[in-house]
Input
Amino acid sequence: MINKLVANAEEALKGIEDGMTIMMGGFGLCGIPENSITALIKKGTKNLTCISNNAGVDDFGLGLLLQTKQIKKMISSYVGENAEFERQMLSGELEVDLVPQGTLATRCMMAGYGIPFFPTPAGVGTEVAIGKQIINWKGRDYLMEEAFEADFAIVKAWKGDSAGNLIFRSTARNFNQPMSMGGKITIAEVEHLVPLGELVPDQIHTPGIYVHRIFQGSNYEKRIEQRTVRKK
Amino acid sequence: MLDKNGIAKRIAKEVKDGMYVNLGIGIPTLVANFIPEGVNVELQSENGILGMGPFPFEGEEDADLINAGKQTVTLLPGSSIFDSALSFGMIRAQKVHLTILGAMEVSENGDIANWKIPGKMVKGMGGAMDLVASAKNIIVAMQHVNKAGESKLLPKCDLPLTGIRCVKKIVTELAVLDVLPEGGFKLVERAPGVSVEDIRKATAGKLIVEGDVPEMVI
Output
């Protein structure tokens, strides 16, 4: 088996340079690559374009990279939970490209399927359609949406092995799976790095061919954004 | 006149046995509380759940298990989990039968605006544009008029659109209305104690009233 194992986040992030485009897995704070975000702050890489469904909160997730002004542009579907984000967006420091969520996920996935563009009805007749090619197929209009071209994809998985095979847990699969297939270089941090042969081949979500670097993560906070409960 | 729970209760009558249903944030989420026993449906959450259950008991929250509103939830026996691309694949392929969501404005030809107010902080459309572009059946749950007392049922939406010609039915605190394919809001039911005249006053778009309009039973 080809060995994708690296020692830690610092080693995994080698080659990430100012101005690059990075996919960042997670939905809200669920399943975000916490170790890599911390290492990216330490590394100090600037002018990043981040493809991520959300932008974290002020003191966690991608919000931390906004505080340090390392992000130049966000490509997201929903960004409401972050005051610093709002400030930077209104002052013009931060560029924001809002993309319908299904289109965003599919554009990540397509990069891993080798499909350059796809037609979708999402956004037809809205401002999302401005400047895009529209094709009519069997009487219905579709927007042509392009696959993302990201220099790196950084994802968080539950389990993984040194061959780069990944299994996600519960709804932390979200954008992590399509993004894990979509980077020119994909970095995966995992909660449990397991020996080769332990993952059941039938149950693997992302085959190792898509993953270039994998490392055992540590100290996961796994913060909950909206804690909702019922009484016993 | 209905309160929020009343609107949700009335919409729950539209949820039929065997449906896969996506509920938006706000009043639509309340609909889940009023689906009758014996009506078997599965709730889809677009971050990747079919068969979503209620909130967890205190102490049993799982950070890896949330709904599209980022709230901690549970899974029912028989549920499934999938990634975001597949989630919107099943929405785009119209496997999800019914989408219930809120709106700021709906026009008489079924256009919907619910994601952006110019001049205010824009949070984004999330999955709303994908959902309204592909759902076979869309029911809007909303107040009939906005906080300034202006009708939200309009000849044409003023706000930036989320989708075009897609809304099939609207349930407000005053009425149930069908959006006709040829255009116009057809008054189907009145809320208890609300007159056709009350509804007419609150509806800026073309209101179609045929015969006696029954009072809703909820």
